[in-house]
Design goal:
- InterPro entries: C2_dom, C2_domain_sf, EF-hand-dom_pair, PI-PLC_fam, PLC-beta, PLC-beta_C_sf, PLC-beta_PH, PLC-like_Pdiesterase_TIM-brl.
- The chain is built from 30 helices and 33 strands.
- By secondary structure, it is of the alpha+beta class.
- Among the domains are: 91 residues, EF-hand (Recoverin, domain 1), CATH 1.10.238; 299 residues, Phosphatidylinositol (PI) phosphodiesterase (TIM Barrel, Alpha-Beta Barrel), CATH 3.20.20; 131 residues, C2 domain (Immunoglobulin-like), CATH 2.60.40; 180 residues, no CATH class.
- The strands form eight sheets. Strands 4-3-2-1-7-6-5 form a seven-stranded antiparallel β-sheet.
- The chain is globular and about 135 Å long.
- The protein starts with 29 loop residues before the first helix and ends in a 33-residue tail after the last helix.
Length: 1066
């Protein structure tokens, strides 16, 4: 799920991030702002009240005022659904129905607007309004639905939520139209101690502070409210950042240049493509200043005050997640098997698996939340109508037809992408036929009855893409093949005996022990039984074939019913195409069959076993086929397993109990919030490509995937709770096992401060994130007792670096007003230990070179008392050579083995070609030679003194004479050769300037072959003396031109220009 450019991060530093296709500002139709006459009715009270219904100009609240001028409001962000027409609620009481009916002759359903809201999927409340015409009803229904699901409602900035809080205060006025101060205090705190703190902040801001005081809206504008916010929170941590950037204590404003530097160095993702996401420039900085600086004089000067800096930090230009992540950012044209699909288990349940209730409404709520796979357990109804119920439990049943109608009405309200209905069918043939007919009648064209022409049901063919299946409902049910005359009887695993459906239309014995039946939840499609009626004849095993057994039911038909069963099975089987459940035998068999349209389901224990035993094969299986994983039968409390475990294996349909908003469900809701809440997330490339291999248990960097490093510093919190309790923050990461970090990073507890706790923690470092595309961060604030305050799920890919605010959410994912954390985030590519300096140099070579120069200047402090040679470099070289000659000619007798004395007092022998290697030399630590050599030869750390025999005696040595003669001949030959080349080149050029260039080129060529490095600057005369001695005596061979020559050690790079054509080498 990479952002454009192939890298995670935000381009917010390069330009505004509000240009997202889906991240549009909230626009409220003028008709809703003006208001409309409705009758609000309540079924419980049986009362209908005339009200004026309207929406505030920002689209935050739905409010109604009655004839007594009493007002009430509803947060639009909590609205889950808005209905009119057939699915709107109408009064059951005839008298109440008569009261609310007014206006035109349109039906009451058509004139009714039902608003559904709630804090979870189970506890839904309804507010009903009736108007005079169906056109008004339709306008309000569509507009409210659009406002409720606008991305900004949930993903707004800190400043937007501050505006929302202020808007609420301006709406809840008294009869005189003024804002009660007690409402202001109540918004921030509910305890006595913090109430005094709010009152003090009101005083500082020049506002009334008495609990019975009021203030007019004209004297309490948003700017006044913002100042009150600053007084309460102080934001000293932001001011500290500002002062560090400004630098000079006397300066109160930030220049445009300083802002540019901050945007590029701190707020920008260093991995972003510079062409696609240009660096911020002065023009960009001035745009930010113009937008957020409240002082017009500062704007003219191009300066940003602390006030403007804070506003920028809280704005849409500083989101913590790249806005593109909320858009439809994934490629939706790939095979269905290439996506994670938001899935529900036993969708009908609202509570406990054995004793809970069933609900039609929860199907709507799950689909509206982006769930794209719901489960339906069909059983025979008492009135010959199929019902949905959890078999062999105390759960009440619900009519199957009503569930199918709810699905038809809600399936595509919030997402156009395909919905999978996972059928678990325990009905007799007659009721199966009814289910098939209901599907056709109710779903109509939405039902995918036949496979697409472009994607045949044949081996090797891929599944169609979500785009091709838009607004289509796909049935998942066991498919009966016409060439089968019998079921191939198979023995299920011991854990599943007597509890599995034995085929389409067959159920397990009613006489099975109740607890054993209860141990199985609704999903009976386990690995042992899915293939009884779907394998082809050539794949049937050699087990004894038995005829289909009769189905026990309320209608125990005899032999004549057998034919009806087959016909009934055929009807519902005809609706099954791309998702055909089969028995799972092995990954090898699935690969051999190569049927993308066949899928298998596993409970969490079976899936875990497969994952542990064959992780790579599991990932490869999910590249081509679908798999569904559901909770184990022992989870009677409807708890959930961690879905990340099976996302890591590429499992698409990881089904959870939506009625339980535990950590697993919070993670599921958080992950599927992205990609425009379609319910589909494209899997990472390595989990899709056949030619790539991914081990979910990999701990080292995966070939071809750039691992990441994430650092998060929790600096502070704002309005975490209205209680006077201690708070702390936990930071976890979920991903591959190697990337998952839980319960490790936790801030200290800040006692008795829910308004502005200052944590200021050291960074929590996730040093190596092996697969960033599959990883997500969970930030969670807790009371000191361990009670969750709020949390947020953030994908690692898309995380914006720098100083950011993050607004926290409830367990359902709804925003908590004013509740936020202030963080410093660093994201970069992972660099192994020991290579960080090298990586830094590659990332910023100019800075690295500057650092080298700085270090050179620092080292110069240690050597600035040494005599510096004067004159030009040529003169320095001549003087040094003359001095060397004079010193060497005045020394004593020669020795066949000259030695160098090291700086630590030990000697290092110099060996001629005929000498044996040095064996008594001490170990020398690697220094500069090590930088350019794979092997690490011993080297001279510091040469202080040369011990040599007099030149006269050396020249008398027979070996020296022979070597000298040999070298002189070779030197003469080389000189003639180079002189000839030089003459040839010079003759080709007419001007002396060109000739000089050629000569220099020749010299450079020779220098490259023969010159050595400048190891150190100290001891120039000493080295020259020794090099001259070696040259004269001819100790070295001129054939070994690849070795490091020693003559240039003291001369530096400049000396190479005057080098001789050939130099002796060691």
């Amino acid at each position: 799920m990479a952002v454009p450019g192939g890298r995670g991060g935000s381009a917010s530093s390069a330009g505004p991030s509000s240009n997202s296709v889906s991240f549009k500002p909230i626009e409220v139709p003028q008709a809703l702002q003006n208001g409309e006459k409705f009758i609000k009715w309540d079924e419980d009270s049986g009362v209908g009240t005339p009200v004026t219904l309207r929406v505030d100009q920002h689209g935050f609240y739905l409010l109604w005022v009655d004839q007594m001028n009493e007002m009430d409001l509803l947060d639009i962000a909590t609205i889950r659904d808005v209905r009119s027409g057939k699915y709107a609620k109408i009064p059951k009481d005839p008298k109440l129905r008569q009261i609310v009916t007014m206006g035109s002759q349109d039906t009451l359903e058509e004139k009714t607007v039902t608003v559904c809201c709630g804090t979870d999927f189970v506890n839904i409340s309804f507010v009903n309004f009736c108007c005079t015409r169906k056109e008004i009803s339709r306008l309000w229904t569509d507009a409210l639905m659009s406002l409720a699901y606008n991305l900004t409602q949930v993903n707004g900035t800190t400043s937007m939520f501050l505006l929302k809080a202020y808007t609420k205060l301006t709406l809840l006025t008294d009869k005189a139209g003024k804002i009660p101060i007690k409402n202001v205090i109540k918004m921030f705190t509910s305890n006595k101690e913090d109430r005094k703190r709010v009152e003090k902040a009101l005083d500082i801001s020049g506002l009334p502070s008495g609990k019975n005081d009021t203030i007019s809206i004209e004297k309490f504008q948003f700017e006044d409210f913002f100042n009150l916010y600053k007084s309460l929170t102080q934001r000293s941590e932001v001011e500290k950042v500002f002062n560090e950037l400004v630098g000079t204590p006397k300066r109160h404003n930030m220049t445009a240049a300083q802002l540019v530097d901050f945007l590029n160095k701190t707020q920008r993702d260093p991995r972003l493509n510079e062409i696609l996401y240009p660096y911020a420039n002065t023009a960009r900085a001035k745009d930010i200043i113009a937008q957020y600086e409240p002082n017009k004089y500062n704007v003219q000067k191009g300066q940003l005050s602390f006030d403007g800096f804070l506003r920028y930090f809280m704005s849409e230009d500083n989101n913590i997640i790249a806005s593109s992540k909320f858009d439809l950012c994934d490629d939706m044209d790939q095979s269905l098997s290439h996506y994670f699909i938001n899935s529900s288990h036993n969708t009908y349940l609202t509570g406990h698996q054995l004793t809970g209730k069933s609900s039609v409404e929860i199907y709507r709520q799950c689909l509206l939340a982006g769930c794209r796979c719901v489960e339906l357990d069909f059983w025979n109804g008492k009135t010959d109508e199929p019902v949905i119920v959890h078999g062999y439990t105390f759960v009440q049943d619900i009519p199957a037809k009503e569930v199918l109608e709810a699905i038809a009405e809600s399936a595509f309200k919030t997402s156009d992408y395909p919905v999978v209905l996972s059928f678990e069918n325990h009905c007799n043939p007659r009721q199966q036929a009814k289910i098939a007919n209901y599907c056709k009648e109710i779903f109509g064209e939405m039902l995918l009855e036949q496979p697409l022409d472009t994607h045949k049901l044949e081996p090797g063919s891929q599944l169609p893409s979500p785009s091709l299946l838009k607004r289509k409902i796909i049935i998942k049910n066991k498919k009966k093949h016409h060439h089968h005359h019998h079921y191939h009887k198979k023995t299920p695993p011991p854990s599943q005996e007597a509890s599995e459906p034995t085929g389409n239309g067959d159920i397990a014995s009613h006489h099975a022990p109740p607890l054993q039946m209860q141990a199985r939840q609704g999903s009976k499609e386990s690995t042992g039984t899915e293939d009884e009626d779907s394998s082809s004849e050539e794949e049937a095993d050699a087990a004894e074939v038995e005829p289909v057994q009769g189905q026990p039911s309320e209608h125990p038909d005899q032999k004549p019913a057998a034919q009806k069963e087959t016909e009934a099975g055929a009807e519902i089987s005809a609706l099954v195409n791309y998702i055909q459940p089969v028995h799972f035998s092995s990954f090898e068999n699935a690969e051999k069959k190569n049927r993308s349209y066949e899928m298998s389901s596993f409970d969490e224990k079976q899936a875990t076993t497969l994952l542990k035993e064959k992780p790579i094969e599991f990932v490869n299986y999910n590249k081509f086929q679908l798999s569904r994983v559901y909770p184990a039968g022992t989870r009677f409390d409807s708890s959930n397993f961690m879905p990340q475990v099976f996302w890591n294996a590429g499992c698409q349909l990881v089904a959870l109990n939506f009625q339980t908003l535990d950590l697993a469900m919070q993670l599921n809701l958080g992950i599927f919030e992205y990609n425009y809440r379609t319910g589909y997330l494209l899997k990472p490339e390595f989990m899709r490509r056949k030619d790539r291999r991914l081990d979910p248990f990999a701990e080292s960097t995966v070939d071809g995937i750039i691992a990441g490093t994430v650092k998060i510093s929790v600096i502070s919190g704002q309005f975490l709770t209205d209680k006077r309790v201690g708070t702390y923050v936990e930071v976890d990461m979920y991903g591959l096992p190697a990337d998952t970090v839980r319960k490790k990073f936790r801030t200290k507890i800040i006692p008795n401060n829910g308004i502005n706790p200052l944590y200021d923690e050291e960074p929590f470092v996730f040093k190596k994130v092996v697969l960033p595309e599959l990883a997500s961060i969970r930030l969670a604030a807790y009371e000191e007792s361990g009670k969750l305050i709020g949390h947020r799920i953030l994908p690692v890919v898309g995380l914006c670096p720098g100083y950011r605010h993050v607004n926290l959410r409830t367990e359902l994912g709804q925003p908590l007003p004013l509740c936020s954390l202030f963080l410093l985030i660093v994201v970069k590519d992972y660099v192994p230990d020991g290579l960080s300096d090298f990586a830094e140099a590659l990332a910023n070579p100019i800075k690295y070179q500057s650092d080298l120069e700085k270090r050179s200047r620092q080292l110069a402090v240690l050597t600035d008392d040494m005599e510096a040679p004067t004159g030009t470099k040529d003169e320095q070289k001549k003087d040094a050579t003359a001095k060397t000659t004079q010193e060497l000619t005045s020394n004593g007798s020669p020795s066949p083995r000259p030695t160098l004395t090291s700086g630590v007092g030990s000697s290092i022998d110099l060996v001629t070609e005929t000498d044996v290697p040095v064996t008594n030399a001490p170990p020398v630590s690697a220094t500069l030679v090590e930088q350019n050599s794979i092997t690490k030869p011993p080297e001279i750390l510091c040469v202080e003194e040369i011990v040599a025999e007099p030149l006269d005696k050396i020249l008398e040595n027979k070996l020296v004479k022979e070597k000298k003669l040999e070298l002189e001949k070779k030197l003469e030959t080389l000189r003639k050769k180079h002189e000839k080349k030089k003459a040839t080149l010079q003759s080709q050029k007419s001007t002396s300037e060109t000739g000089e260039k050629i000569s220099k080129l020749m010299n450079i060529k020779l220098v490259k072959r023969l010159s050595s490095k400048n190891i150190f600057q100290g001891g120039r005369a000493t080295i020259l003396n020794h090099s001259f001695f070696l040259r004269v005596t001819g100790v070295f061979s001129t054939e070994s031109t690849s070795a490091e020559p020693l003559t240039s050690v003291a001369d530096g790079p400049e000396s190479s220009a005057n080098a001789e054509p050939e130099r002796p080498t060691l």
